[in-house]
Amino acid sequence: MGRRPRDHDADRAAIRAAAERLLAGAPLRSPSGKLTASELIAESGLRRDVVYGHTDLVQDFQARAKAQDSTPTAMQELVEANRALKTDMAELKTELAQERSRAKVMRRIIAELSLELEQAKTELGSATGVSRLPDRRRERV
After folding, report:
1. pLDDT tens across 3-40, in order?
2. Closest Cα to residue 71, out of 24, 103, 116?
3. What pLDDT was estimated at residue 75?
4. Which residue in 6, 10, 51, 131 has the fewest CB atoms around it within 10 Å?
5. CA-CA distance, 36 to 48, in Å (whole number)?
6. In whole angstroms, what is the distance from residue 53 CA to residue 8 CA?
7. Is 66's pLDDT higher than 90?
8. Which parts of 87-134 are beta strand (E)?
9. Of 19, 32, 28, 8, whose CA–CA distance to 60 is shortest?
10. What's the CA gap between 124 and 136, in Å, rounded?
11. How far apart are CA 21 and CA 30, in angstroms?
Protein backbone atom coordinates (compact mmCIF):
# COMPACT_ATOMS: atom_id res chain seq x y z
CA MET A 1 0.00 0.00 0.00
CA GLY A 2 1.37 3.38 -0.96
CA ARG A 3 0.46 6.85 0.09
CA ARG A 4 -2.69 8.47 -1.08
CA PRO A 5 -2.06 11.22 -3.59
CA ARG A 6 -2.42 14.76 -2.22
CA ASP A 7 -5.59 16.64 -2.96
CA HIS A 8 -4.15 19.75 -4.62
CA ASP A 9 -7.49 21.53 -4.63
CA ALA A 10 -7.88 21.02 -0.89
CA ASP A 11 -4.30 22.20 -0.31
CA ARG A 12 -4.90 25.33 -2.39
CA ALA A 13 -8.15 26.00 -0.52
CA ALA A 14 -6.34 25.65 2.83
CA ILE A 15 -3.60 28.06 1.72
CA ARG A 16 -6.14 30.61 0.43
CA ALA A 17 -8.17 30.39 3.65
CA ALA A 18 -5.03 30.80 5.77
CA ALA A 19 -3.97 33.84 3.71
CA GLU A 20 -7.40 35.43 4.13
CA ARG A 21 -7.38 34.86 7.90
CA LEU A 22 -3.89 36.34 8.25
CA LEU A 23 -4.71 39.34 6.09
CA ALA A 24 -7.92 39.93 8.05
CA GLY A 25 -5.99 39.76 11.34
CA ALA A 26 -7.89 36.73 12.62
CA PRO A 27 -5.40 33.83 12.66
CA LEU A 28 -6.38 30.47 14.13
CA ARG A 29 -3.03 28.68 14.26
CA SER A 30 -0.40 31.37 13.73
CA PRO A 31 1.28 32.35 17.01
CA SER A 32 2.05 35.96 16.03
CA GLY A 33 -0.28 36.73 13.13
CA LYS A 34 2.52 38.39 11.18
CA LEU A 35 2.17 38.50 7.44
CA THR A 36 5.08 36.25 6.49
CA ALA A 37 5.38 33.07 4.48
CA SER A 38 6.32 31.15 7.62
CA GLU A 39 3.15 32.30 9.34
CA LEU A 40 1.16 31.37 6.23
CA ILE A 41 2.58 27.85 6.49
CA ALA A 42 1.74 27.65 10.19
CA GLU A 43 -1.75 29.04 9.62
CA SER A 44 -2.50 26.63 6.77
CA GLY A 45 -1.51 23.59 8.81
CA LEU A 46 0.31 22.12 5.80
CA ARG A 47 3.92 21.09 5.43
CA ARG A 48 6.37 23.68 4.14
CA ASP A 49 7.08 21.76 0.93
CA VAL A 50 3.37 21.48 0.17
CA VAL A 51 2.81 25.21 0.61
CA TYR A 52 5.86 26.16 -1.44
CA GLY A 53 4.62 23.78 -4.14
CA HIS A 54 1.94 26.42 -4.74
CA THR A 55 4.29 29.33 -5.40
CA ASP A 56 1.60 31.39 -7.11
CA LEU A 57 -0.46 31.46 -3.91
CA VAL A 58 2.55 32.26 -1.74
CA GLN A 59 3.58 35.10 -4.05
CA ASP A 60 0.03 36.44 -4.16
CA PHE A 61 -0.09 36.40 -0.34
CA GLN A 62 3.27 38.17 -0.08
CA ALA A 63 2.15 40.86 -2.57
CA ARG A 64 -1.10 41.45 -0.68
CA ALA A 65 0.76 41.55 2.62
CA LYS A 66 3.21 44.12 1.26
CA ALA A 67 0.33 46.22 -0.04
CA GLN A 68 -1.26 46.04 3.41
CA ASP A 69 1.94 47.37 5.02
CA SER A 70 2.90 43.97 6.52
CA THR A 71 0.84 44.20 9.71
CA PRO A 72 -2.92 43.83 9.76
CA THR A 73 -4.84 46.60 11.46
CA ALA A 74 -6.43 44.13 13.85
CA MET A 75 -3.01 42.90 14.94
CA GLN A 76 -1.79 46.48 15.45
CA GLU A 77 -4.79 47.14 17.67
CA LEU A 78 -4.07 43.97 19.64
CA VAL A 79 -0.43 44.96 20.10
CA GLU A 80 -1.47 48.40 21.37
CA ALA A 81 -4.06 46.89 23.71
CA ASN A 82 -1.49 44.40 24.98
CA ARG A 83 1.00 47.20 25.63
CA ALA A 84 -1.63 49.18 27.58
CA LEU A 85 -2.58 46.11 29.61
CA LYS A 86 1.06 45.45 30.48
CA THR A 87 1.42 49.03 31.70
CA ASP A 88 -1.73 48.71 33.80
CA MET A 89 -0.54 45.41 35.20
CA ALA A 90 2.81 46.91 36.22
CA GLU A 91 1.02 49.75 38.04
CA LEU A 92 -1.30 47.30 39.79
CA LYS A 93 1.63 45.14 40.87
CA THR A 94 3.27 48.21 42.43
CA GLU A 95 0.04 49.14 44.23
CA LEU A 96 -0.38 45.57 45.45
CA ALA A 97 3.16 45.50 46.84
CA GLN A 98 2.49 48.76 48.70
CA GLU A 99 -0.78 47.46 50.12
CA ARG A 100 0.87 44.24 51.26
CA SER A 101 3.57 46.28 52.99
CA ARG A 102 0.92 48.40 54.76
CA ALA A 103 -1.01 45.31 55.80
CA LYS A 104 2.15 43.78 57.26
CA VAL A 105 2.78 46.91 59.35
CA MET A 106 -0.86 46.94 60.48
CA ARG A 107 -0.66 43.29 61.58
CA ARG A 108 2.41 44.09 63.69
CA ILE A 109 0.66 47.08 65.29
CA ILE A 110 -2.43 44.98 66.03
CA ALA A 111 -0.29 42.26 67.62
CA GLU A 112 1.55 44.79 69.81
CA LEU A 113 -1.67 46.50 70.89
CA SER A 114 -3.25 43.14 71.70
CA LEU A 115 -0.29 42.30 73.94
CA GLU A 116 -0.47 45.70 75.65
CA LEU A 117 -4.21 45.26 76.22
CA GLU A 118 -3.68 41.86 77.82
CA GLN A 119 -0.94 43.31 80.05
CA ALA A 120 -3.20 46.19 81.09
CA LYS A 121 -6.02 43.75 81.91
CA THR A 122 -3.64 41.63 83.99
CA GLU A 123 -2.30 44.67 85.86
CA LEU A 124 -5.81 45.96 86.47
CA GLY A 125 -6.95 42.60 87.76
CA SER A 126 -4.09 42.36 90.23
CA ALA A 127 -4.47 45.92 91.50
CA THR A 128 -5.85 46.16 95.08
CA GLY A 129 -8.60 48.49 96.07
CA VAL A 130 -10.05 48.69 92.58
CA SER A 131 -13.40 47.12 91.94
CA ARG A 132 -14.24 45.97 88.42
CA LEU A 133 -17.50 46.70 86.76
CA PRO A 134 -19.37 43.75 85.28
CA ASP A 135 -18.88 43.14 81.56
CA ARG A 136 -22.13 44.18 79.88
CA ARG A 137 -21.46 42.07 76.82
CA ARG A 138 -21.77 38.91 78.88
CA GLU A 139 -25.03 40.06 80.49
CA ARG A 140 -26.81 40.41 77.13
CA VAL A 141 -26.33 36.78 76.17
Report:
1. 778 888 999 999 999 999 988 888 888 878 888 889 99
2. 24
3. 74
4. 131
5. 13
6. 10
7. no
8. none
9. 19
10. 18
11. 10
